[in-house]
Amino acid sequence: RSRAVPMRGDGQGQPASKTGRLVIVSNRVADLSKGNLAGGLAVAVGEALKSSGGLWFGWSGARSAEAHSKGPNIQTFGNVSTATVDLTEKEFEDYYLGFSNRCLWPLFHYRLDLAELHTTGQATYFEVNKRFAAEVAPLIQTDDTIWVHDYHLIPFAAHLRQKQVTNRIGFFLHIPFPAPELFSALPHHRDFAKTFFAYDLVGFQTVRDRENFARYAEEYLNCRRLNDGRLRGFGRTLRIEAFPIGIDAESFAAEAEKNARAPELRALAREVESERLIVGVDRLDYSKGLPERVRAMGSLLEKWPNYIGKVQLLQIAPPTREGVQAYDEIRSELERITGEVNGRYGDFVWSPVRYVNRPVPRAMLAGLFRRSRVGLVTPLRDGMNLVAKEYVAAQDPADPGVLVLSQFAGAAEQMEEALMVNPHDPAETATAIRRALEMPLGERRARHKALWNQIVSESVGWWRERFLAVLHETNGQPATPGGP
Ligand code: GDG
């Protein structure tokens, strides 16, 4: 665990509330009119926004034909405001679907084969970042702390600095940072990467990601690594740290306990015993290793036919980023393999894989996790993977299920007591599933206890407070026109 602890300072600096407002910048802004904050980022930063007061800026989610914005749409909810802007159709196509999701997403997930490196979207990506920076700059106050999120907005601070903004600006990358050899395949990668140096702090999910970035900066940008771990380059000193994102484990556990007996789940239990139920929940993304997972089910049944008619994988995989070809392809592939495995091993009353291509309400997911003996989280590459943590949080400590986890999920750096697998090897995954299904109660309890302690102590609140505390230890940067 100490691997994620900051190398410099104690991360216990001034809390955000004592030093002015928090300004969150992310691709999408949550709808705060709904009262209850739902969804990853909103839950993750919501408390900090409420405690220090703040502003959340980003895309409204709407597309408009007009090329010029009339300024952000500002809405106020108590001490928190949202400021949103629309994207034009071209911006949506080139910045969001194009460069962000056809190029950066696959590249950062080690999928050079899927990355559209020559997309014209890179120019629009920079333009949108520039426009966003211009729209938010007049709203920034001198003592604001600015926290920018994720791969859509990497050059955001560079554009903001050109508007003479000298505030502290932090960035958190929710997805992996790839090995330098991969990143350097991006055309103009140096111009792109130097924009990281406009931040005061760049946070990564894992030590591996942080070190990939550091190695890239040293080898390709001629930066110098200081003894305290910071990077010196482009006339600036950049602090880089690993901050593994967490969940609110206690509230997810309560939700799971409350929903474990929901009528929908009782009906499911009539068909498959809980002790034989395996669950997977993932956006239908090629990074999540879904076809490999279904192949592993085939491998399990081939090697151990005693499970035929008894076990079932319930895979929830809601569609995502429709309109990007790689997503249409992964869906076809998953559906073909699911059909193949079900056709080979299923009969009139039972099939080994149940596949749901729709989102399921969060409460239902929590109950489902609790009723499933095995949680199968086998991405080929993942920044963190919150499902792994949610699955653990949902278990009954007296009779807990077992997490089977990919070594390539960021969560693997923290969750050592899971059954770790190489998701590229269906036979290895099948062996782990069998081990999970057969694991004695004592071992299940011991593993669960260790994992539970881990997710409770390194919670989402811990992540948020540590990021902001470390950001407050930095000094802010002079605005250097024309700089990175
Ligand atoms: C990115 C990074 C990183 C999923 N299906 C349904 C549903 N979900 C919820 C899960 C979980 C969340 O969505 C997914 O989070 P993950 O972390 O698993 O993955 P990404 O969406 O790829 O998130 C990832 C994360 O950012 C945070 O930094 O961990 O590595 O890729 O909470 O439960 N929720 C509901 N219905 C569904 O059908 N309600």
UniProtKB/TrEMBL annotation:
Residues 1-17 are annotated as: Disordered. GO terms for molecular function: alpha,alpha-trehalose-phosphate synthase (UDP-forming) activity. Gene3D superfamilies: Glycogen Phosphorylase B. Residues 474-484 have a biased composition (Polar residues). It holds the Pfam family Glyco_transf_20. SUPFAM superfamilies: UDP-Glycosyltransferase/glycogen phosphorylase. One of its GO terms (biological process) is trehalose biosynthetic process. It comes from the Bacteria. Belongs to the glycosyltransferase 20 family. This is Trehalose 6-phosphate synthase. It comes from Faunimonas pinastri.
